[in-house]
Amino acid sequence: MVRRIVIVGGGCGGGTAVQFARKTDRQAEITVIERETYPQYSRCGLPYGISGIIPELTNLIEAPEERMRKNRIGLMLGTEVTTLDVKAKSVHVKAPDKELDMQWDSLILATGAKASVPPLRGVFKDGGKPGELKQGVFVLRTIEDARGIQSRGYKGKRAVVIGAGLVGLEVAEALMIRGCKVTIVEYLPNCILAMVDDDMAQMMSDAIAKHGVKMFTQFQVTEVLGDEMAGGIVAQDRKTGEEREFFADLIVVATGQRGETELAKQAGCVVGSTKQIVVDDRCGTCVKDVYAVGDCTEYQDLVTGKPVVSGLGTIAVKMAMVAGVNAAGGDERLPKGFLLTRCTEPFGCQVAAVGPTTPQLEAAGIKPLVGKVRSFTLPDYYPGRKEIFVKVLAHPGTGKILGAQIVGEERVHMRINAFAIAIQANMTVQDLARLETAYCPPAAPTIDPITIACEAAKLKMARGVGQQQA
């Protein structure tokens, strides 16, 4: 009997799952149902489409319809699954021209997430339900969102970006490149604090200022100004209580995302403490033959063991590889937990991190040993060398590496990958301090900055100051 696999969602999770399902079962009948009118594309590339670095937003498409057809994949675009019936193993589908029920033997939920918009006064259309944003207010999740931002964000326009996380900073840079006068407003004391510690985030803040972009931290946005068209925001300084108006021609809300879990709840899937779908190491839910991947799921952090939502395309792809194989009858497993290895590069500043931040470790009951150094990417005598800052977080008793953060102008992401390998291999700062690294004057210094940071942590351990911050 031919296996029927239905995948709900055609983003990087669904698009990857279909590839691995097809590799596992060459005869399976596989259908991908996608709400948008585009096949799989890179959401991470959207800011670079807005800026014009990528000339056409459609260049972001990674799995053209023709390729799907060649692999005998049914692709239903502009189509939504409205209900699912676990007992009957069917989904009710609403397409542009018809409605129908589809049967499945295995179901993969790759429903992703939607932008999370806080209930600010005036952010939604007058009399409109949440989700209908006022004209001139945008989020960034889809190609159509990017087109909307492009349509208003051009030279001389004033832009306000609410939120200084990864998406917020990348959009702010894109609008700056387009010639906008950009202001960032952030609730927390610094930018990208979900990614790195405050001292490392400060280097990104400095880079933002050098590019002429204003950033106001510890401000809570309370209102979007304007009647039919947004004209700015009102924000309150959390330190003084003073209110301030920021006028704008366009506003981008980049305050995070929340997983699309409605179908999973219909199916009876357990939703965890993070409000996302709980999955096991096979990407299986608590419902037989129903799998879930990507931004709508939670899995455990490898270091702390606590539930975590990644929001990373790399994790969605890894989960989708596992779910695709298993939905097609194979047996593939996730690692024991995720490290959330991550990087970004707005405003000429490269930032990379792996594992929990210091506050996240402290919340898990671990006060880490810290080794932090300022170094350079090339030998002292070689022209063009750049500063690089490396911070390693380790267990104060054993020296086991728990996390790392790197900031610099170049050669950052491959170094964070070395730390990711070290954590997965249960290495200590003592181990990595002895690491033999490649050296060539135009490429790298004699002693790599990652080993210097580990040496700093190792020396602190020897002095008995394991819990003292660097």
Task: State the end-to-end distance.
Answer: 62 Å
Helix content: 25-40%
Q: Provide the low-confidence segments as ranges.
A: none
Number of domains: 3
Q: Quick one: CATH superfamily of the largest domain? A: FAD/NAD(P)-binding domain
Multimeric state:
single chain
**Total helical segments:** 12
Strand content: 25-35%
Alpha-carbon Rg, integer: 24 Å
What is the CATH C-level name of the largest domain? Alpha Beta
Biggest β-sheet description: 5 strands, parallel
Q: Strand arrangement, largest sheet?
A: 3-2-1-7-19
Supply the CATH architecture of the largest domain: 3-Layer(bba) Sandwich
Structural class: alpha/beta
Q: Say how many strands there are.
A: 26
Mean pLDDT: 96
